[in-house]
UniProtKB/TrEMBL annotation:
Gene3D superfamilies: Ribonuclease H-like superfamily/Ribonuclease H. GO terms for molecular function: nucleic acid binding. It comes from Ureibacillus xyleni. This is RNase H type-1 domain-containing protein. InterPro entries: RNaseH-like_sf, RNaseH_sf.
Amino acid sequence: MKSKGIVKRVKKPSFWGNHEEKVPLELKEWVLNQYFSQGWLYIYCDSSCSKLNHGMSVACTYVGNGSVMVTQQLVYSPADVCGKNVFGELKSVIFALLNFSKYIETAHKGVTIYSDLDDIEMLLSKQIVFKKIDTLKTVQNELIDLFVKMQTENPELTIEVKYLTRQFKKHNPFMKASHNASRRLLKRS
């Protein structure tokens, strides 16, 4: 039987273009497993800040089930946290927690939120507490309260927030998408 039209073979997507040979095989497999995952939603968070005008933006990349979606938002940064990246990183995780339900499908069993804030897990468990800057204390408490609330409201989901290690950050197209989206939004504002 002869087929009509153009027959194309489906192959794995290449997120790295000409730089694919530089990317470690372990990272490629990790990224593709997340991209094709049908039971889990992966979220990559990043923020950008401008010391000149107190501007800050956050972005999240939602990955799973063969799709990638990027969202971003401008964030007001009070004077006591102007230029402090930790404030933006905490706000980006809050942004992810507030919006992940829009991207959850019935087959999803869990959500993993990645942040490049290396102490994120210790901040969530209050092993580290901000002492000097009131705004950071407030945002940390807001994050912890929201995290607990989301776990309570979604008992059928496993919700976790993890640090994205350097080994999985470099050449990661999803983290790069969040980074670029937050930078672009900040430049436009």
